[in-house]
Amino acid sequence: MVNFNFFLKNNKKFIYIYFVLAFLLCLYILPDFGVTVDDEIYYVNGLHTYNYVKLFLLNTFSNSNYDLIDSRSYMVEWPILFELILVFSSKLLNISDTRELYLLAHKLNIIFFFIALILFFKIINSRFNNTVLAIISTLFILLSPRIFAESFYNTRDIFFLSLFIYFIYFLYKFIDYKSYLNIILMSLFSSFLINAKILGLIPVIFFILFYFFAEQRKHNYIKQKINFIILYLIFIIFFSYILWPYLWNDPINNLYYAFTNMLRSHESLTVINYYFGEHISSKLVAWHYRPVWLLTTTPFFIIILFTVGTIIMLSRMWSYVSKVFEYQVFLTKEEFLDYFLFILFFLTFFITIKLNGSKFGGWRHLYFLYPIVVYFTIFTIHKIYLISSFKVIKILQFIILLNVVYLLIWNVKNHPNQYVFFNSLIKNYALEKFDLDMWGISHKQSLDKILEIDTSKNITVYAKGYTTIRDAYLFLNESEKKRIKITDFEDANYVIDIKMNRVRKNMVINSIDFDKFFDISVDEMPITTVYKRKNIIN
To answer: Does residue 378 sit in the same domain as residue 520?
Structure first.
């Protein structure tokens, strides 16, 4: 297999050191990242759900008589898994300060993410029987700039990505050894997926179908598979009910309402995307919106290898499909995982293109598919090694090392704005023609720098464009909050422009009233500009 002749080959101590040092580094830089405009909304919903759970348990086990109807009226039907974990953790640690709450959320997210990286390492190591490939696979995920940055603050999509890796890990264990314990564990993590995002239904339902039709061996094996599927569904329903308090008082009707209302509310949400240099409604954007975002924001080297892996898999699909219809499929656990992930990747894109009319936020809603991209990138490297000469293998090793170093340098250079990464093929075009700071993450960085330079006690700030500055303000410490006042455009001493002019009324920042104070740039392209009103004395 691939051998870099490094001391890391089968060296467990190095692997432990690698994960520990990477995790500690992430904890160290964690406060540098901003927050999203959704953070407070989700936390408040988690808090209402926590209060409902507490009153429900008190009524059940202590003969109390709290008004559950009133408490339940504050709950929203969204899946609530991460937020409940956050609120329970904050209560346990006695944290109420908003800055500390945000930091706790980010710490939890990075913890879940690193556990997922470790499990992904184990999946790749087991599938390809190679420690080096497993390390490379985690580096490709960890150093992919957008995934890296959002692993700190994106508690929706990266948390879901982490849960998806957990799901795949236990799926692979179940395919390897079909025990009742493994089916229960897989059911548990399947319910985690569903309780984190409605998209979790896609891999869960597809697994049931694929598991039933993928292997045809003996007649009595069909009966065993049906038994496992029934047990799997029973435990999913049980765990999902326990983990989703919104369902507790009326499971069937509330489940139906939750799914239909979530779909309806998502489709009714209209955002103006900046896509190929045009401002386009999220309901009118072309079908290729998310595939293009994936292709442009994933490192180009990974895209090339993933494409090669896709071609190889497509060549294998024809013989596989023909055998399925002839009832002659005999899949190893490795082949099962290959085919399952390959079909799931394209099936998910097809379903979301056809059924999800309102597209926005880049491809962040499908970030959970990125481990599949990396999986088939590693698949390609493995295949190249098997058919190549020693010289070609050495060249490939050098190219991999070069790309890892490039991504590492890029992440360091553009910290903490890695979320505005575009690959080398399109970055000069995309930085001018695509959405950049969609969530207003740079607001925190802007406020930090204003507070650092301006020593006055009262600073008025206005955020121009699509996103609010409220969440970034809540992320400040108490002394900083006393100095900052969020105001309107006319009264602001400082105006933060994140280049996302999506509202109908856009304030004109002219050189008569304002001077450019500073820029926040990525690849030498300003993604945020802060203006200072003239005649303001610090």
So the answer is: no
Question: Residue 434: inside a domain, yes or no?
Answer: no
Ranked by mean pLDDT, the top range of 27-31, 81-85, 388-392, 438-442 is 27-31
Rounded to two decimals, the pTM is 0.93
- Quick one: 37 and 176 in the same domain? yes
Q: How far is CA 19 from the centre of its chain?
A: 20
Phi, psi for 22 (deg, rounded to 5): -65, -40
Q: What is the separation of C-alpha 302 from the centre of its chain, rounded to a whole number of angstroms? A: 18
> Residue 445: CA atoms inside 13 Å, Cβ hemisphere, count?
23
Residue that is last in its domain, among 356, 387, 418: 387
Say which residues have a Cβ less than 8 Å from residue 285's Cβ, sequence separation at least 6: 273, 275, 359, 360
DSSP state letter for 321:
H
**Statement to judge: residues 371 and 234 lie in one domain:** yes
Distances (CA, A) of 130 to 9, 136, 341, 443: 9, 10, 20, 43
pLDDT digits (tens, 9 = 90+) for 390-424: 899 999 999 999 999 999 999 999 999 999 999 99
163 and 270 both lie in a single domain: yes
Q: What are phi and psi of 510, to 5 degrees?
A: -100, 160
Does any domain span residue 404? no
Q: pLDDT digits over 130-158, tens only?
A: 999 999 999 999 999 999 999 999 999 99
User: Would the pLDDT of 11 be above 80?
Assistant: no
* Domain housing 20: 13-387
